[in-house]
């Protein structure tokens, strides 16, 4: 039990939207209340959550963009959540046709800026005296360097929350996973997301006249 004299840590949450989304893509849990998820995972006696920052981008495909926009509207009904946008950029890549083995050039859309955005905000916020702890929901080792700065230079505590293992086929078991060893070395504690956490952290199907996308039902 926590000592009555021990003050809860002023904490900011950073959520890598695409890292989280791809772990949930083939599950029924995409309509996720991020505030409730974090509150289910973190001990409220140890953390005073000041802000949740969600890093994402709007896809270029119209149907995907519409679903993402609806989800962001739902997130904006929550208090103390900030949406920070990256963007999708088109890149030409070479590949081979399956039937002819002919080399062709195709356009590929890639999400950009979110890693840089996360790293920048983590370091910027950690320079503030009133911030004690950084919580990162991601398993992306590209964020190792900014976390090293936060831990060793700025002397802040780090907690890692790791998304579930990616589900390859609909109906497959939803399993927790460990954070990457590089992230575990930097974190005071590493936590995983369990299926029960996801079940208990869903928005209602309709919230403030915002309805869950039909393909997510």
Notes on the protein architecture:
The protein has 217 residues and is an alpha/beta fold. The protein has 7 helices and 10 strands. It has a 6-stranded parallel β-sheet, with helices on both faces. A two-stranded antiparallel sheet has the order 4-5. Helix 5 links the parallel strand 6 and strand 7. Helix 4 runs parallel beside helix 5. The longest helix has 14 residues. The chain is globular, with a radius of gyration of 19 Å.
Explain the layout of strands and helices.
Elements: E1 9-16, H1 17-24, H2 34-41, E2 47-56, H3 62-75, E3 81-85, E4 87-96, E5 103-112, H4 114-126, E6 133-137, H5 144-153, E7 157-162, H6 181-184, E8 189-192, H7 195-199, E9 206-207, E10 210-211
Parallel strand pairs: 1-2, 1-6, 2-3, 6-7, 7-8
Antiparallel strand pairs: 4-5, 9-10
Helix pairs in contact: 4-5
Name the descriptors.
two-stranded antiparallel ribbon, 217 residues, alpha/beta
* CA-CA gap between termini: 40 Å
Number of helices: 7
> Low-confidence runs (pLDDT<50, min 5 residues)?
none
What is the radius of gyration computed over CA atoms, rounded to a whole number of angstroms?
Answer: 19 Å
Give the strand order, joined by hyphens, for the main sheet.
3-2-1-6-7-8
The coarse silhouette is: globular
Q: How does the helix and strand content classify structurally?
A: alpha/beta
How would you sum up this structure in a few lines?
The chain has 217 residues and is α/β, with parallel strands linked by helices.
